[in-house]
Amino acid sequence: MPAPLNRVATTPELPSTADVVVIGGGIVGVFAAYYLTRRGLKVALVEKGLIGAEQSSRNWGWCRQQNRDARELPMSTKSLDLWERFATETGEDTGFRRCGLFYLSNSDDELSGWARWRDFARSVGVTTHMLSSAEATERGRATGASWKGGVFSPTDGIADPASAAPAVARAILKLGGTVHQSCAARGIDIEGGRLSGVVTEHGTIRTKIAILAGGAWASSFCRQFGIRFPQASVRSSILSVSPGASGLPDALHTSAVSVTRRGDGGYTLAISGGGRVDLTPQQFRYAPQFLPMFVRRWRSLALGGFEGFRSGHETLARWRLDAPTPMERMRILDPKVDQRTIRLTHSRALELLPALRNTNVSAVWAGYVDSTPDGVPGIGEITTVPGFILAAGFSGHGFGIGPGAGHLIADIATGDTPIVDPRPYHPERFQRSAWGKVADF
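Above: the chain sequence. Below: its structure as tokens.
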């Protein structure tokens, strides 16, 4: 029972040249390709598996400003507007709607943290409402419990992970761009010190600009060309249930479990921040840089197994460009589900929201959330390889900020005025320590 995913057509012939090649068909890659194609560039999007098949279809679907780190908040705000505008521009349906996001808590510390974020949000024009005990209990009446307080962020929303990336890919095709599935990018060509092409399993595309939006594969890809990008993945397991529950919020978070309405009327159930850290060579290599992150989040993480070795996305090996790579052996990262987490998540959800007892489990799946040492993505041109732009390490936030990230990437590639300040995202910051800079989210 894998994560649901809509399919999209593949362009039959690989072009020999392109203005830009986008590597990776997740939500960030498709939005980058979309905004570049809208500007009249010849864009080829290459994906080793299927559009949106990895983390872009395996997440909750939240598109939020609430509790964002200050560095990501401007991109989050822009993204909400871009989610809405995309539907108007293209007629394609990503399932996006501003239903508001609802948080409940009985923890004084958690409520105090949300109140501090509310005060910060006001200073930058973001609306969020702290709820009193009576207000939280009334709004959360579906739980049948009393609550100390909560938060409601009315302008935030959700989109449908099963349909969003494919919808953007269809828009790219309508604009004249090309989309190539089952087409792994094995590497890049460099001539005269700058990027000159992208080598795929089906041939080379000559180009002066390539964008690597490779998700959990980005670090091992960069390593082939002497580019150091610290990245670590957490295996997260979640489930969905069938339609049948009524009277529930569209998107509800508690410390025990979070619940999101899906496009089919069912719900996605997950435990926020939980996951397993699978042992890989890459995990050991970058362990010192991830120590600040681990110190902050060790309570929500558990040691995994050797699933990451099987997947191959965090290998330290070098591969040839004229032979199959780990990406061709593992077209879609589909790691083993942690059944204990699934059982715990389901039982917590049924306890929190009794109406869910009228539903059945419809799917269970796992995915790799790719993180950076500070929990903020790396976006920017690699100075040692002009023309090569990195966009990865979205740390579980990539779906919601996908449109803003894609727009920023297109701005960087074309030299246009950036939609947001790009400096907080530049990958060169990873050459310094992350102590004191780990994102609050």
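The two ends are 30 Å apart (CA to CA).
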